[in-house]
Amino acid sequence: MEKFIAIAKHFALDGDILDIRPLGNGLINDTYKVTTSEGAPDYVLQRINHHIFTDVDLLQRNIEAVTAHIRAKLEAAGESDLDRKVLHFVPVKEGGKTWYYDGESYWRISVFIDRAKTYETVDPTYSEFAGEAFGHFEAMLADLPEALGETIPDFHNMELRLRQLVDAVREDKAGRLHADAHGSGELRAILSEIDADGERMCRAEQLHREGKLPKRVCHCDTKVNNMLFDENGDVLCVIDLDTVMPSYVFSDFGDFLRTAANPVAEDAPEVEKVDFRMDIFEAFARGYIRGTADFLLPVERENLPYAACLFPFMQAVRFFTDYLNGDTYYKIRYPEHNLVRTRNQMQLYRSAKAKVPQMQRFLESL
Fold this sequence. Notes:
The structure is a single chain. This protein has about 375 residues and is an alpha+beta fold. It folds into two domains: about 1-110, Phosphorylase Kinase, domain 1 (2-Layer Sandwich); about 125-365, Aminoglycoside phosphotransferase (APH), C-terminal lobe (Aminoglycoside 3'-phosphotransferase, Chain: A, domain 2). Helices cover about 45% and strands about 10% of the residues. It contains 14 helices and nine strands. The strands form three sheets. A five-stranded antiparallel beta sheet has the order 1-2-3-5-4, with helices on one face. The protein has a two-stranded antiparallel sheet with strand order 6-9. Strand 2 and strand 3 (about 45-50) form a beta hairpin. Helix 4 (about 125-140) runs parallel beside helix 10 (about 280-290), helix 5 (about 160-170) packs parallel to helix 12 and helix 9 packs across helix 12 (about 305-325). The radius of gyration is 22 Å and the shape is globular. The termini are far apart. The relative contact order is 0.12.
């Protein structure tokens, strides 16, 4: 704990530090709760994973611009519970930056939001909450004057993911395509299906080049547990802002549904259980349309069913690329783990694609 206390003391905190202990179970950053003396706020200390977020200064500038903009809007609207409705990051004592480098790791501290909770539940009720919260988050930032940088460049670029797959096929580093030629032929069949729909799934990039589809400030990690709720079950704010950056609204819409609308985990081998749940789609879409009513363009709204198909397709391509490369990106628990993930996501893509007419009818009814 002494090491963490020494790091925390570089930040302009109120009160005396009494305790620092692990908080939550995040997959990317290491997170700790800093308890202070009575009368002062508690804080959240995080070690930033700079292997994923390689430009920490850019990362924090993005977050500072976003939180300041939201705070100003809430203040103008007379929000009474301001400090619980938007995150606040604490500057270091010298230099004013909101991050500190100790020679090995990058650290940041935010004010702990008291009496708040997160949920892991994925059902229609919480999906609608999520749709409205993330839609409202985008709406609050639709007029952000600062130009944000991409904390993970080309994060949701479908054309790039397909180029990476082409490279993986050409190199066949693990020899799996060569073995498949003398085996079941499953890998060639997956490639054929991806190739058949690949150009169609690059619609976002095509529309953007034509000047028809804008990039927005998006969250890009839309999960139910990335929202804080108050004691009454009402949404307080959106959290986990590391991936907030310019993207198409399809990122926030499609990425939520990729995980939430699938009744099984993305690596479940029981492909017959994979399905695209329309009740989750309808609930999330209902909330999202309500949250984005002030700015969403017709081209964005009419392509939301495409977004629901895009993200399982994109993830299948990424899993399959990693499988062909010899499993160098995603952690695996057994040799065919990435292939199992690929089968799962391709089946989710097929299910979503088959339900596009239903999605379109529902959106037209709103």
